From TrEMBL:
Taxonomic source organism: Sphingobium wenxiniae (strain DSM 21828 / CGMCC 1.7748 / JZ-1)
GO molecular function, one term: copper ion binding
Gene Ontology cellular-component terms listed: cell outer membrane
Single GO BP term: intracellular copper ion homeostasis
Name this protein carries in UniProt: Copper resistance protein B
UniProt keyword list: Signal
Comp. bias intervals (Low complexity): 24-33
Annotated signal sequence range: 1-18
Domain of life: Bacteria
Sequence segments annotated as region (Disordered): 22-102
One Pfam short name: CopB
Length: 338
């Protein structure tokens, strides 16, 4: 009986002792919240347990862990393709003589001249050989002054490419209700000397109340520094008379649409031409001032004044015909182009 009682007491006491031991263990547990996790004995690194790259030799380098060049680049251009440390940049300046010593058309050696010639012609036409034209009516005006009022015109135009062009010019004047007093027409070939100037040569024919004249023409026309438009020409008539003309004008923009244009014209003669009323030396001079309003670039009405004066024998010829040597005129006109 006693053995059975002892076994019963041992069975009852064992769970109680186990519970007491567990409570003691709880009381002795560390305060670390990660105590139940497997920690690295040598580091409290939060990345413990993760696969990490080998520790770099210089842990302060921000690029640690990245694949880096074996040696730092000392040349500022090292990062550009085709540059190596120690190799300088190619020298500047024009190409060497060897670069210009080859054949003019190297592609002919591969494709043949018969094939490349038409191809070069297509490229030439598509890059600079475009034909275009323009007609400028610079002055079409009524002239109001003492005596009978009249009208005058000055126009020019061209057709061609960048280098060679066909030009025409015309100007004249008369009085309202009377036959044509004077008019001239020029047909010229123009050759570009540079981006600013053109050489012009051709013929001119005058229609007037007196005898007609035909001339050979040689002149230049272009844009001078400070945007002065200049036109100068020499004339040799079929009678051997030599005359010259110089014209200049300047467009001063007061606003985007309001433009003030001063202009000057000087005419010279190498000899007296009594039948035309022209004296030697400076024969006539004209100064004009026109103020135009440009509604659109192609259409601009204007008002203005001009002063014309004859000199020397030219003035004497005019007085002999009952005319004045010079005077002021008021102008109303239109400038247009297309």
């Amino acid at each position: 009986m006693k053995p059975l009682v002892g076994i019963f007491i041992a069975a009852v006491a064992t769970p109680a002792l186990a519970q007491q031991d567990h409570g003691a263990a709880v009381q002795q547990a560390p305060a670390d919240p990660h105590a139940q996790h497997q920690m690295d004995e040598q580091s409290a690194d939060p990345h413990a347990g993760h696969a990490m790259p080998p520790k770099p030799s210089e842990p302060t380098d921000p690029h640690a862990g990245h694949q880096m060049p074996s040696a730092p680049a000392t040349d500022a251009h090292h990062a550009h393709a085709g540059h190596e440390p120690g190799i300088p940049d190619p020298p500047g300046g024009p190409p060497s003589a060897a670069a210009l010593g080859g054949p003019a058309h190297a592609a002919d050696a591969i494709f043949g001249a018969a094939t490349m010639a038409p191809a070069r012609e297509v490229v030439r036409k598509e890059h600079g050989d475009i034909k275009s034209g323009m007609i400028l009516i610079d002055q079409l005006e009524a002239v109001i002054g003492k005596g009978k009022d009249g009208y005058a015109w000055n126009a020019q135009g061209w057709y061609g490419g960048d280098i060679d062009r066909l030009w025409f010019k015309t100007e004249g004047e008369s009085r309202f209700g009377e036959s044509l007093e004077s008019a001239e027409v020029q047909a010229l070939w123009g050759r570009a000397l540079d981006p600013w100037w053109n050489l012009q040569a051709g013929v001119r024919h005058d229609f007037r109340t007196g005898p007609d004249r035909s001339y050979a023409v040689l002149g230049v026309q272009g844009l001078a520094p400070y945007w002065f438009e200049v036109d100068g020409a020499l004339f040799l008539s079929d009678k051997g008379d030599v005359t010259a003309r110089f014209e200049a004008e300047y467009d001063q923009r007061l606003t985007q649409k309001l433009i003030l244009q001063p202009a000057a014209e000087l005419n010279f003669s190498a000899q007296d031409v009594p039948e035309l009323g022209i004296g030697s030396g400076l024969s006539t001079a004209e100064l004009g001032l026109r103020l135009r309003y440009q509604f659109v670039p192609e259409f601009a009405p204007y008002v203005g004044v001009k002063y014309e004066r004859a000199f020397g024998d030219t003035a004497d010829f005019r007085r002999a015909q009952g005319e004045k040597a010079g005077g002021w005129k008021f102008l109303i006109g239109i400038r247009s182009w297309f």
